């Protein structure tokens, strides 16, 4: 069997994976294929080796690290909904992004390090949307992940 890695593997179409420090080989969530780091005009991304039959794609950081965990089309839709609702809180609210994620982690009873919507399943995305419906809390109490208002 031919040795394969994220830096040298050639897919059937002849395209090469990018040679970036964070590049990995990922399992395709849509088929039994593997996903390799590619370059687009928008930056690096992971594409399935079975393209064009399988059109699965997944985002990447500039260094090639995957953005979260690849997901099937349905889970991707839920992640987009969750991000749209959640990002509104810190982009248009009076709370910093990191504080919003810390509050979400507390609400979901997970660690801050585990609190990445790009890694969530559908059920966790539904929890994010419930959190967004709950925010801001009507009355602060001991269960309020935002804490008490120091100015009140």
Verbal overview:
The protein has 152 residues and is α+β, with helices and mostly antiparallel strands. It folds into two domains: 1-67, Bacterial Topoisomerase I, domain 1 (2-Layer Sandwich); 73-134. The protein has three helices and four strands. It has helices at residues 73-92, 97-108, 122-134; strands spanning 26-27, 34-40, 43-48, 57-59. The protein has a four-stranded antiparallel beta sheet, with no helix packed on it. A hairpin with a 2-residue loop joins strand 2 and strand 3. It is elongated. The N and C termini lie far apart (68 Å). The relative contact order is 0.11. Mean pLDDT is 83; it is low at 1-14 and 148-152.
Label the CATH architecture of the largest domain.
2-Layer Sandwich
What pattern of helices and strands is seen along the backbone? EEEEHHH
Shape: elongated
What name does the CATH topology of the largest domain carry? Bacterial Topoisomerase I, domain 1
- Give the C-level CATH assignment of the largest domain: Alpha Beta
Give the domain tally. Answer: 2
Look at the helices and sheets and give the structural class. Answer: alpha+beta
Please, how many helices?
A: 3
Describe the secondary-structure layout.
Elements: E1 26-27, E2 34-40, E3 43-48, E4 57-59, H1 73-92, H2 97-108, H3 122-134
Antiparallel strand pairs: 1-2, 2-3, 3-4
Summary?
This protein is of the alpha+beta class and 152 residues long. The chain has helices spanning 73-92, 97-108, 122-134; strands at residues 26-27, 34-40, 43-48, 57-59.
């Amino acid at each position: 069997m031919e040795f394969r890695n994220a830096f040298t593997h050639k897919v059937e179409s002849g395209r090469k994976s990018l040679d970036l420090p964070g590049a990995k080989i990922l399992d395709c969530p849509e088929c039994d294929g593997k996903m390799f780091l590619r370059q687009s005009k928008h930056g690096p991304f992971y594409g399935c080796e079975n393209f064009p039959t399988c059109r699965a794609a997944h985002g990447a950081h500039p260094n090639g690290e995957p953005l979260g965990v690849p997901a099937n089309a349905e889970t991707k839709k839920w992640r987009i909904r969750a991000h749209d609702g959640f990002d509104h809180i810190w982009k248009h609210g009076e709370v910093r992004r990191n504080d919003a994620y810390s509050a979400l982690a507390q609400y979901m009873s997970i660690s801050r390090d585990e609190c990445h919507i790009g890694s969530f399943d559908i059920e966790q995305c539904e929890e994010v949307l419930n959190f967004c419906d709950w925010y801001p809390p009507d009355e602060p109490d001991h269960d309020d992940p935002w804490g008490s208002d120091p100015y009140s």
